[in-house]
Amino acid sequence: MATEKAMMVVSTKARPEKQQAYNIWYDEHISLLFAFGGMERVSRNLYTLPLGDSGGNSPEYLTIYELKNKADIEVFFNSPQMEQAKKQFEEKWDGLGDVLWSGWYEPVKILERGPLIAPKRYMEIVGSGPKTGQDAAYLNYYTDHFTRMFAYNGIKNISYSRQLQKLAQNNKSPEYITIYDFESKEARETFYQHQIFIEAGKDWKEIGQPVMDLQWAACYDSVKILER
Fold first, then answer.
1. 135-149 and 195-203 are packed helices; what angle lies between their axes, rounded to 10 degrees?
2. What is the dotted CATH code of the domain comprising 6-227?
3. Predicted pLDDT of residue 208
4. Using one digit for the tens of pLDDT, what is the confidence trace for 129-165?
């Protein structure tokens, strides 16, 4: 029986004058957490291009921690690796930036052409949810939407995940996160001129907008990846 995976997504913003120190700190931070044996992959990703009307709402940095097994969430939080990371946060984080939101997510649907092992990730990441009273219509529309997007051969994987647990009070983490992994930067750029994307834009206006709360969407490039 296959295990159910889970991912922790953390949204942060660096102080402009502290970018270098922020990046040094964060690379050390994810290395501490990646030492947990149940961690499959950690990727630290930088916002590079807003998409659509809500693109400007996209977080500057998104760090994605992927656990092999959802059942290990509590073990991870109580691990020596987490204790080390908390200590590092308490001692060195102050003044480098802000944590905007964070949460755990579990997959709803994954489409994949192969493993994500690569030195660099070129992604589109979308934060969304249903408009009030439109849960079923939203899920029907959006599942169909990204499934059709997958017909574009330049997309390597698509993962669509729902929020499992918020990690901060007054948390503004989106209910659903979709990650489109492209084969290359060029494949991503070409996608936005492709007929598949153009046709999807028409459906968005007619079907998607009435039912979907599109909170933000943007292109992200990985800054650092750790994986087993």
1. 170
2. 3.30.70.100
3. 94
4. 999 999 999 999 999 999 999 999 999 999 999 999 8
Distance CA 59, CA 125 (A): 10
User: Locate tokens 């729902």: which residue?
Assistant: 162
CA angle, 45 then 46 then 49, to 5°? 130
DSSP, res 2? P
Give, to the nearest 10 degrees, the angle between helix 80-92 and helix 19-34: 170
The kind and range of the H/E element at 76 are helix 73-77
Q: Is the dihedral of CA 184, 42, 216, 96 positive or negative?
A: negative
Residue with the two structure tokens 């983490």: 173
- The amino acid at residue 162 is R
pTM, two decimals, is 0.94
The backbone torsions φ and ψ at residue 11, rounded to the nearest 5 degrees and listed phi first, read -105, 130
Whether 6 and 164 have beta carbons less than 8 Å apart is answered as: yes
Residue 136 burial (10 A CB sphere; 0-12, 13-18, 19+): exposed
Q: 64-119, pLDDT tens digit by residue?
A: 999 999 999 999 999 999 999 999 999 999 999 999 999 999 999 999 998 777 68
- Contacts of the segment 35-38: beta carbons below 8 A, 24+ positions apart: 35/81, 36/76, 36/79, 36/81, 36/82, 38/67, 38/68, 38/69, 38/72, 38/75, 38/76
CA distance to 97, 126, 218, per residue, from 121 (Å): 24, 15, 14
